[in-house]
């Protein structure tokens, strides 16, 4: 899916919601454990319930990897089940020397046909480029993450006065265009998001873990949106574990719809869409 | 395996060689492709041929992941086949927010019983700590990698005058002790290795991709060794693909032995072992 097509999906659904498939056998409704592949069965029902309101799904690869070979089978089936018009993100945070990154790219782009993969920037250009060589696929590079540990290194200021995440934003734009490169941006302060948008005006940002309540979504949207929306805002647990019981699909659908309605309001208000 | 046990293995074998299992169906001898599990069969024969001279094996996880569920089965069988007295490294370069890192740790430490895993530091303390919570297991944190892209961010100098990889070395020592934390150190200049050893005097370093020829091994060893050796030097392709034909095991054994003999000489010369 290219950038224009992604924006069209956002307009069509009035939504820039990404649903995180952090599927955990300990958290899914008990009655699903009797299924042959409970992880896939949970994902299938969540996808059925939410795809009207979501423009992207983001399986968190660790949850599948922790289950061994079976987990990879569940992941593959999930990916094949996601409708073609929904953007898919392998949240894998890979990154290694050139030939190794090529193999990771092959695993997620060729074997599994994900649209995109999250990549860690620490090893620099030759660890990221192999992912960018896949036509029509996307790298979502970690810039400013939302966890506490983001402060440890990402905020280190260089002699030039730029923070590490700003260096990542600037240098990586020489490696790939806004048609193949997005950024993970977890910042929740207005001035920081504005600053990041100024450094990368045309790129999509994947924003992790913002609740629909509390103003974070509005603030991020007002300061982070560009003309093509430029945001994919992820919600995982609040949607997929809205209920741990048999009503989990209706509850997930309601949660997703509420986020979508708020996004609809923001798209109208900010972009006039 | 704890630090003392690792050092005892190094003394016993007069070797600090790590053999990288970057097993690639395109590169292994053709006759193995008739086997039911060619990847495992190749690894099995390489392990048989080289374990007298190697203190560690390091499967590069991308090579297995690129093969889908089958690849994970080959990896698991390989790990079970590696003799108990050899240290095992999952070269996975993982790292994510806390609960996700916990799942990666579970995958590699509990499901697969690796001794250690390589981890990327970009997301900071709470992305690394979950790995450190597994008793008797090791994190091998990327500090200074050996690829060209290492220059992009790892060498950025902060206002305090320290480079990013030096900040990683210093801050991460507050997260775990030299009994649970090693570093990837791919530097090949004498003064840089000396500087890194000064910042982390007691930690083991995993040194990627140094050929036995050309003086790099000697230079790294002279400037990087500590009293417990403190080095694991990796060689992948030069050993496992020494031959692409039916003599691959004898050729791999000869290559491994040559490195071991050079390491024996260096251990005697530097540590008097």
Tell me the domain tally of chain A.
Answer: 1
Query: What would you call the quaternary organization?
Result: homodimer
The low-confidence runs of chain A, each spanning 5 or more residues with pLDDT under 50, are none
CATH class of chain A: Alpha Beta
Largest sheet of chain A: 8 strands, parallel, barrel
Computed over alpha carbons, the radius of gyration of chain A is 18 Å
| CATH architect. name of chain A | Alpha-Beta Barrel
The strand line-up of the biggest sheet of chain A is 1-2-3-4-5-6-7-8
- Alpha-beta classification of chain A: alpha/beta
CATH superfamily of chain A: Aldolase class I
Provide structural commentary:
The structure is a homodimer of 273-residue chains. The first copy, chain A, is built from twelve helices and eight strands. Chain A has an eight-stranded parallel β-barrel, surrounded by six helices. Chain A has a single domain, classed as Alpha-Beta Barrel (TIM Barrel), CATH 3.20.20.70. In chain A, helix 2 crosses helix 12 (248-271), helix 5 packs parallel to helix 6 (125-132) and helix 10 runs parallel beside helix 12. The model of chain A has no long low-confidence stretch (mean pLDDT 95). Chain A is an alpha/beta fold and 273 residues long. The radius of gyration of chain A is 18 Å and the shape is globular. Chains A and B meet through helix 3, helix 4, strand 3, helix 5 and helix 6 of A and helix 3, helix 4, strand 3, helix 5 and helix 6 of B. Chains A, B: The active site is at residue 93. Chains A, B: It comes from Dawidia cretensis. Chains A, B: Belongs to the OMP decarboxylase family. Type 2 subfamily. Chains A, B: Its EC number is 4.1.1.23.
